[in-house]
Amino acid sequence: KALHMAELLKGTGNVEARDLTDYKVNLIQDNIMRSGMNNIEAVRWDATVLDEASIEKADIVIADLPCSGLGVLGKKTDLKYKATEEGCHELAQLQRDILKVVQQYVKPGGLLIYSTCTINPAENQDNVDWFLREHPQFEGMDIRDRLCRELQQEVREDGSLQLLPGIHESDGFFIACMRKKEL
Fold first, then answer.
1. pLDDT of 70 over the 90 cut
2. Residue of 88, 117, 148, 177 marked catalytic
3. Dihedral of CA 82/84/90/93: which sign?
4. Does the predicted model carry a pTM greater than 0.70?
5. How far apart (Å, rounded) are the C-alpha atoms in residues 146 and 163?
6. How many CB atoms sit inside 10 A of residue 15's CB?
7. What is the pLDDT of residues 54-69, one digit of tens each?
8. What does the DSSP assignment read for 30-72?
9. Is 117 a catalytic residue?
10. How many CA within 13 A on the CB side of residue 183?
11. Is-contact 15 9, C-beta < 8 A?
């Protein structure tokens, strides 16, 4: 996702891809080197820790958060043996903790894109509803004009979209776009 954003910028701007683990940061760095793009960097950072230098600096923050992965069970069948109700609740809370931090990086007028690869409402729509209630400086953004005609009717009024395996010819995936209101 970060490489795609960097590519869309066509060499302008800067993309910073953050992850908690050295392993994932190294994978991102390998992909950056292969791509040859110079407007992107990978950084190890705990998303639950505020980076004061990044407050209101980002036009777009993509919060592709850790989740239960219940939308990709077809590809990662071992997840069904690891998933628990308690674990899903803990992940939903972790997502909220991260959203509380990363929303601060969005400039007025900027976008916060929230995504998961799960079909669990607690990790998806419930968190968007919570976020918009707790952070009134944000509003859901309609993304219909950025989607194919088949998916446009699936977008909720708050701008979120839940893809479901067997219905949408894809894995289970959730995305919501929220705009920070101008001051």
1. no
2. 117
3. positive
4. yes
5. 15
6. 22
7. 999 999 999 999 998 8
8. HHHHHHT-SSEEEEE--TTS--GGGTT-EEEEEEE-----GGG
9. yes
10. 4
11. yes
